[in-house]
Amino acid sequence: MCFNESLPCSSDHTVHLTIGYHYIQWNIHYKSSIQTLLYSIVPKMDFDKDMAQPKKKLPNKSLLLAACAACIGGTFQYGYNVSVINAPTLHVQNFINQTWRERYQTNISVDALTLLWSTIVSIFTVGGLVGVTVGGTLSVKLGRKGTLLVNNIFALTAALLMGLSYPTGLFELLVVGRFFTGVNAGIGLCVQPLYLGEIAPTAFRGAMGMGTSISITVGILSGQVIGLKEILGREEHWPILLSTTCVPAFLQLLTLPWFPESPRYLLIDKGDDKGCKKALKQLHGLAGCDGERDDIEKERNNLRDFQAKKPWELFTDRSVRWQLLTIMLLNAAQQLNGINAIYFYAEYLFTQSGIPADKIPYVTVGTGACECVTALTCGLLIDRLGRKVLITGGYVLMSICCILFTLTLSFQDASPVVPYFSMACLFAFILSFGLGPGGVTNILTTELFTQTARPAAYMIAGSLNWLSFFLIGLVFPFVVIGLQQYCFLVFLAVCSLTATYIFFVIPETKNKTFVEIQNDFKSLRHRKAHNGDGAEPTLF
C-alpha cells in the first residue's frame, strides 16, 4: 500500500514476512521507510534537528530577577506615566486656574487653559523623543545596565518638580517635570529591550523580550488603579499621585546593581572576556553559560574590526536595508494602527452602553487588565508559535475588528444591543493588539540586528515611534471630526498592508541566533537580486 503517490512503491518499501529477514534488519528498514515518508509529507520540518533538540529547561532564577529589575525602572515608567496623568485632569486644571487668578486677578480663558493642559500632556512625547535619541549613544558609552541606572536621575528629578508644583504655586514645574518623565521613558524604551534581548538565551529570547510589553501594560494598569479616588485620585492627593514616579526609580536603584551588565556588551563592545564569563555564569548558571558563550563568540568573529554604528550609517549600509525598512514600518504601524482611536472611543462606548459616569474609571481599569492578560499570554506563546505567526495574526484580527467597529458605530442607534457589540469589538481589538503588534515589535527590533547596529536601530525605531505617537495625538482629533466612525477604514488599510508585508518579507526568528537571522536576510537579498536578473534590487 502506498501512503503517498509521490513516493515510489517498490519491494524495498514493503515489509515481507519471510523467515529470511531478521527482526533487527526489518526494524531498521521500517524506521527508515517511515522517516522517508515523513520527510516527503512535511518536507520543511527538520526531524533530525527537532528530535535531537533537548527539552527546554526553565530560565535561571537570576535571569528572571535581572529582567524584573530592568523592567521596573524601564518601560514600566513609560506605561505608568502615560496613564497616571488621566486621573487628575480636572484637579490640575483647577490648580492652574487658581494659580492664574492669584497672579493676574482674573480667571484664565478656556483656550489658554486647554493650551496649558495640552502642553503638560504632550511635552511627554517631546521628552521621549529626546530620550530615545540619546539612549542608544549612552548604551554604548555607559553600557546597558549603566544607562538604566543613570536614567533614574530623570525620574527622580521629575517627581521632585511635580511634587513641588502645588506648594510653590508654579504650574510651570509640571511642564518641566513631564518633560523629564518623557526623557526617562524614551531612554527606558530604547535601552531596556536591548538589555533583555542580550542577556536572554536563544531559546527564551522571545519570552524575555516580552518583558518590555508586559512591564508597559502593568505600568498602565498600575497608573489606572492608583489614580482611582479610593487611593490617590482625590483632589488633595494629585501632587503625590504625580510624584509616585519616584517609587519605580528607587526600586530599580536598589535591585539592578546586584545583577551583571549585558554579556554581549562586555565581550563584543568592551572586550572584557573575564567579565563576560562571570555575567554568563550568574545569569545562566554553569550548565547554560558555555552554549551562550559560543553564540556570542560567533557574533564577535563576524563583527571583528567593526565599531558601533551611528543611526545615519544604517541608512547607507546596504546589508541592513531590509531590516531597517522592517523596523521603521513596524514601529510606525504600532502607533498608527488604531489602538489610540480605540481608547478615544472607549468612554463614549461605555456611556452609550449605560455605564454610569462615576463607574467608567473602573471599566477603564478593565481595559488595562485586558492588555496585561494578553501581554502575559503572548509571552507564553511567542517561543512556541513564533514571532511571525503572532504579529501577522494580530494585524489580521485587528483588520477584521476595524471592519466590525465601523459597522457597529454606523448603526449605534439601531438597537440597544449594538453598543454592546461595539464594546466587544473594542476588547477584541485590544486583545489582538496585545497578542501581536504590542508585544512582538520590540523583540524584532532586537533580533533583526547584530551588536554593532542594534543601538542605532533602536534610536531610529524609537524616534519614529515617538514621532508617530506625537503625530497621532496632534492629527487624530481632526481625523475623527472629519471621518467620524469611518476613520477606522484608514486603520484597516494600515493593519492589512502591514500584515501583508510581514507575511511576505519577514523571516521567522524563533530559536535562531542573531547570526542565523542575518543569514536569512542575506538570502532574501540574494533572491531579490536574482529576480532582478542579477542586478541589485532598487531598495538596496
TrEMBL record:
Residues 67-510 form the Major facilitator superfamily (MFS) profile domain. One of its GO terms (molecular function) is D-glucose transmembrane transporter activity. It is a multi-pass membrane protein. Coiled coil: none annotated. Its main location: membrane. GO terms for cellular component: plasma membrane. The chain crosses the membrane at residues 63-80, 115-136, 148-167, 173-195, 207-226, 238-259, 324-345, 360-382, 389-411, 417-444, 456-480, 486-506. Keywords: Membrane, Transmembrane, Transmembrane helix, Transport. One of its GO terms (biological process) is dehydroascorbic acid transport. Pfam families: Sugar_tr (PF00083). It comes from the Eukaryota. It is found in: Membrane. InterPro entries: GLUT (IPR045263), MFS_dom (IPR020846), MFS_sugar_transport-like (IPR005828), MFS_trans_sf (IPR036259), Sugar/inositol_transpt (IPR003663), Sugar_transporter_CS (IPR005829). PANTHER family: MAJOR FACILITATOR SUPERFAMILY (MFS) PROFILE DOMAIN-CONTAINING PROTEIN, SOLUTE CARRIER FAMILY 2. Belongs to the major facilitator superfamily. Sugar transporter (TC 2.A.1.1) family. This is Major facilitator superfamily (MFS) profile domain-containing protein. It comes from Gasterosteus aculeatus aculeatus.
